[in-house]
């Protein structure tokens, strides 16, 4: 079963209390305070503080990018880099990009409970800045695909709980979405559902509707 | 007119239009095995019953066998919810019919040794074996429970059966609540053929046919008390499209209010309610059957995703063996653990969920997935021995389950026994699903490999399908939450009817026992409000 990526970062007050903002206007701050940053874990906390408060603050301002409803530009860049490293086109299996993993991830985030959403966003942020700890030079999205795969594998095997939890959580969400995509089934030898037509759940219908609205407004 | 009962289902989006105030004899929060069985018994006894269900009402026509679509419909937390430290994936229902809609349909009676232990160690009263046997007989008839027939034995099941027999292990056909099963293998995605006898197609419609009303998409958020008397249950209607609360309220005034929201949710609901009396045991004594898996690569096609998940199960290790007397849940013991304390079952996962729990990432992980037809494996339902807890902090539910001490010993033994079975069955390679991606190919590698598997957070994947104990039953308000009549201590008319009341794990799938306990609760509530 896929597990939530629980980085130990508590959701911001604005997320966990009070009536939630309408999802279409979902522009909020993932409030990673110094205390919460340290709660992520000793090494990670030092790393994050070392990166500099200015960049942290920028990253914490999550403004949905393009027609996405949750992922901001920076987060999407990190996610794309991860998808590219874990799910490249290999001649038989399609690329993660071509099966729409970023879109599926955004929808999962949008529909997730607020606490899970905040944790997953924090996990993406940690992933972006963590490479120096594992021998990478620069931020995750700037590394070569091979270096990204090496860093991610090192995180999975890390003795530090926080890195392992971040990597396991992201891998589980993406693996579930990738192999649940019909485009992968033929290569796997999976004959798929007996019910011929997919029936999107209400959350998927609402998500698609809001994306369409955003696309119309942006056109 | 056969489906006239559907007119008594109120749900999003119509329900959002205006506030609702209703009154009834009994208001029940939750529509899974606990709530639906209770509602059916009370409604058929002539009581006016209102069921409040947080999740949506879906039928077989909504069940499309796609993993992501069905996780969104029937899985609480959409498969993203974990214990506090990320160790255990929480599996619970969020739909009419509760977790019974995505369970495997395994349907066991409470074993006699457990019934005896619950009486002798935990002082259980009113739920004696004779009383439960009477209720089990009714439930088994209603849900068409029967041993799995040969036609439902897939290759993985046959491997488990034959190898366990070769090893001299006690292995049995698993009793199944099914009728006309087509063997599609999509039990965890909700049955598109109404063959699995979940509450959605059994006790929920029967309750409604007897006059009960069902409010779906309705989340219980509070209870008004007058002294010890629970007067009104306050709920808010959820927008099914977003899962977020609307401003629309449903208030239910009832003579009795029952929380049957499931093993994860009931202790949380009770902690959010301002109970008239503090109950220190609330949220304590929690168990959840954490499930370690072992994955195997065979040289033949297994096709684990078809047919029913578990037609045969290994019962050899259901009871733990000790040097000395058997230890009971949460109780100290001077006995030394030898082995056991779990059921060992064939595993079944569709490709998305299987990919999520297989080890590694990137090229090595893809190489494994390319062998999907030849991948099989087993899973063990661990009978917890060290209790965990459920608490509400900063508005969030926090679930803690210790993977140490007796629990860790059982998990390691379950890994060893699963590996022994799979190697003996001829598996080419075994994977433990751990973050280190430990793999073995020979029997002599099993014990050293298992000894080094880490139980630290997120190093492995454990599902937790059978939670309970967080509002356990007992005579004293010092160490229990409800009495033997299911009534919450310190209240006149607030009850619990789900596995939260169990004093200890039942050592088998709990669904039949949850229903049987609900039958007892129905009798108690009827007497109380007569």
- Terminal CA distance of chain A reads 39 Å
pLDDT averaged residue by residue of chain B: 97
What distance separates the N and C termini of chain B? Answer: 32 Å
> What form of chain B results from the Cα inertia axes?
globular
Helices of chain B, by number, come to 12
Task: Report the sheet with the most strands of chain B, covering strand number, pairing sense and barrel closure.
Answer: 8 strands, mixed
Features:
heterodimer, A: 219 residues, mainly alpha, two-stranded antiparallel ribbon, 2 strands, disordered N terminus, B: 530 residues, alpha/beta, eight-stranded mixed sheet, five-stranded antiparallel sheet, 24% helix
Brief account:
The complex is a heterodimer of chains A (219) and B (530). Chain A is mostly helical. Chain A has helices at 13-16, 34-40, 42-51, 53-60, 73-86, 101-111, 114-129, 145-156, 161-179, 182-188, 202-218, and strands spanning 28-29, 61-62.
What does this structure look like?
- The complex is a heterodimer of chains A (219) and B (530).
- Chain A has 219 residues and is mainly α.
- Helices cover 57% and strands 2% of the residues of chain A.
- Chain A has helices spanning 13-16, 34-40, 42-51, 53-60, 73-86, 101-111, 114-129, 145-156, 161-179, 182-188, 202-218; strands spanning 28-29, 61-62.
- In chain A, strands 1-2 form a two-stranded antiparallel sheet.
- In chain A, α5 (73-86) packs across α8 (145-156) and α8 (145-156) crosses α9 (161-179).
- Chain A is globular.
- The model of chain A is unreliable at 1-59 (pLDDT under 50).
- By secondary structure, chain B is of the alpha/beta class.
- Chain B is built from 12 helices and 23 strands.
- Chain B has helices at residues 33-44, 67-74, 112-120, 129-142, 155-166, 203-209, 265-272, 351-357, 363-369, 405-424, 446-451, 511-529, and strands at 9-10, 20-29, 49-52, 88-90, 145-147, 171-173, 175-177, 213-215, 218-226, 229-238, 245-259, 293-297, 312-314, 321-323, 336-339, 342-346, 375-382, 389-393, 396-400, 429-431, 439-440, 462-464, 494-496.
- In chain B, a hairpin with a 2-residue loop joins β9 (218-226) and β10 (229-238).
- The chains are: A mainly alpha (219), B alpha/beta (530).
- Chains A and B meet through α6, α7, α8, α9 and α10 of A and α2, α8 and α9 of B.
């Amino acid at each position: 079963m896929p597990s939530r990526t629980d980085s130990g970062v508590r959701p911001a007050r604005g997320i966990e209390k009070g009536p939630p903002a309408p999802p279409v206007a979902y522009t909020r701050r993932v409030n990673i305070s110094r205390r919460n940053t340290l709660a992520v874990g000793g090494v990670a906390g030092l790393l994050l503080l070392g990166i500099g408060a200015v960049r942290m603050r920028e990253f914490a301002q999550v403004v949905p990018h393009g027609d996405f409803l949750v992922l901001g530009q920076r987060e999407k860049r990190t996610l794309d880099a991860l998808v590219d490293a874990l799910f490249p086109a290999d001649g038989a299996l399609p690329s993660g990009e071509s099966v729409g993993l970023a879109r599926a991830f955004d929808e999962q985030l949008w529909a997730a409970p607020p606490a899970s959403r905040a944790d997953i966003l924090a996990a993406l942020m940690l992933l972006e800045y963590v490479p120096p700890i594992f021998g990478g030079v620069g931020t995750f999205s700037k590394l070569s695909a091979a270096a990204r795969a090496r860093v991610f594998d090192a995180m999975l095997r890390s003795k530090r709980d926080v890195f392992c939890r971040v990597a396991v959580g992201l891998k589980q969400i993406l693996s579930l979405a990738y192999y649940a995509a019909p485009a992968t089934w033929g290569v796997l030898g999976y004959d798929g559902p007996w019910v011929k037509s997919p029936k999107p759940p209400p959350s998927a219908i609402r998500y698609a509707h809001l994306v369409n609205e955003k696309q119309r407004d942006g056109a | 007119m056969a489906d006239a009962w559907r007119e008594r289902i109120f749900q999003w989006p119509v329900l959002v239009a205006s506030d609702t105030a209703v009154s009834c004899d009994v208001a029940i929060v939750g529509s899974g095995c606990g709530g639906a069985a209770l509602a059916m018994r009370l409604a058929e006894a002539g009581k006016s019953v209102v069921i409040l269900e947080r999740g949506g009402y879906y039928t077989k026509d909504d069940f499309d066998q796609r993993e992501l679509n069905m996780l969104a419909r029937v899985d609480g937390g959409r498969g993203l919810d974990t214990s506090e430290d990320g160790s255990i994936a929480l599996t619970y229902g969020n739909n009419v019919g509760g977790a019974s809609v995505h369970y495997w349909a395994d349907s066991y009676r409470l074993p006699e040794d457990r019934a005896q232990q619950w009486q002798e160690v935990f002082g259980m009263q009113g739920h004696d074996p004779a009383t439960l046997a009477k209720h089990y007989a009714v439930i088994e008839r209603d849900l068409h429970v029967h041993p799995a027939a040969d036609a439902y034995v897939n290759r993985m099941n046959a491997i488990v059966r034959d190898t366990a027999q070769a090893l001299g292990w006690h292995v049995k056909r698993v009793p199944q609540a099914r009728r006309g099963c087509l063997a599609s293998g999509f039990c965890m995605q909700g049955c598109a053929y109404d063959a699995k006898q979940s509450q959605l197609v059994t006790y929920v419609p029967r309750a409604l046919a007897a006059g009960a009303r069902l409010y779906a998409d309705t989340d219980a958020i509070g209870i008004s008390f007058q002294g010890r008397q629970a007067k009104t249950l306050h709920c808010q209607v959820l927008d099914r499209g977003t899962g977020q609360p609307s401003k629309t309220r449903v208030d239910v005034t009832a003579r009795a209010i029952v929380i049957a929201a499931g093993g994860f949710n009931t202790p949380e609901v009770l902690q959010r309610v301002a109970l008239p009396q503090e109950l220190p045991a609330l949220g304590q004594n929690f168990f959840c059957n954490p499930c370690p898996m072992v994955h195997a690569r065979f040289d033949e096609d297994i096709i684990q995703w078809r047919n029913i998940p578990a037609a045969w199960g290994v019962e050899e290790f259901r009871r733990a063996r000790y040097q000395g007397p058997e230890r009971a849940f949460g109780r100290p013991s001077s006995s030394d653990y030898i082995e056991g304390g779990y059921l060992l079952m064939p595993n079944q996962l569709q490709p998305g969920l299987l990919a999520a729990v297989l080890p590694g990432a990137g090229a090595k992980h893809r190489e494994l997935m390319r062998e999907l037809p030849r991948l099989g494996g087993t899973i063990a339902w661990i009978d917890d021995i060290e209790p965990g807890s459920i608490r509400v902090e900063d508005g969030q539910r926090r679930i803690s389950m210790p993977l140490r001490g007796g629990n860790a010993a059982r998990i390691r033994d379950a890994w060893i026994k699963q590996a022994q079975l799979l190697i003996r069955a001829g598996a080419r390679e075994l994977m433990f699903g751990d973050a280190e991606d430990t793999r073995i190919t020979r029997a002599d590698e099993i014990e050293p490999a298992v000894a080094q598997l880490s139980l630290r957070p997120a190093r492995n994947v454990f599902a937790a399908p059978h939670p309970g104990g967080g509002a356990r039953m007992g005579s004293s308000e010092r160490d229990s939450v409800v009495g033997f009549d299911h009534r919450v201590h310190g209240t006149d008319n607030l009850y619990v009817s789900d596995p939260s009341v169990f004093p200890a794990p039942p050592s088998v799938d709990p669904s039949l026992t949850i229903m049987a306990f609900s039958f007892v609760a129905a009798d108690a509530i009827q007497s109380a409000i007569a």
